[in-house]
Amino acid sequence: MNETEAVLDLAVQLAREAGAIQRERYETNFEIRTKSAAIDLVTEVDHACEKQIVDAVSKQRPDDAIVAEEGSGSDREGAEWRWIIDPLDGTTNYAHGYPRFCVSIGIEHRDERTVGVVYDPLLDELYCAVRGDGATLNGRKLQVSSEADFGRALIATGFAYDIRKSPEDNIDRFASVVKQARAIRRDGSAALDLCYVAAGRLDGFWELKLHPWDVAAGLLMVDEAGGRTSDLSGGRAPRTGHEVAASNGQLHDTLLEILGGR
Hints:
The chain is of the alpha+beta class. The chain is 32% helix and 26% strand.
């Protein structure tokens, strides 16, 4: 087993373990708090999942850097491997008992997206991607959709937590796309949205003001399933997640044109 395979195996193990915590606590009583805004939630389950993942990575791979949403990781400049962890993507959904959430673990090797693991514990769907080796769902190879007509496309997006106060609220772009696509979905988990593009369930996705942990695994998933990812101008999708578009490739330029990025 080479090191990339070992990293993938560990990520799968930890995603499943965190998913088990989410299943066990789903629709039970747990503490819910706010972070950057009244609609930006964090729960004790987020923290429990993050602790479980970060503690295990720190113990088994002490030289690796860790960037985790709730801040418990330790980034290390110059580290060869970097884990980028969203312990519970879709916290607002989870807090409301809405069944769309997941564990997302993206891993960079020498600053390149190399391994991605996303686990939906309620559907028991495990998405995996390795750079140059494709993407899978429960072991089945993933391929993006072949849809070439934007009028028949199912597109997804989301809205940032500062939507109540920022003029850059994505609503104008939403209005443009919804009038030209077959439909838009807004399901509250960017990691799952990107996996659904990779699986051909969605034909495209865009969002603004995301974070590295929202996209580190999902962008690799789309790329390895034969899709295309970028910023809204068609350049490389940023590691920050600040501006992201993903599609089956055939619809990408049209999506960017409608969004006004090019």
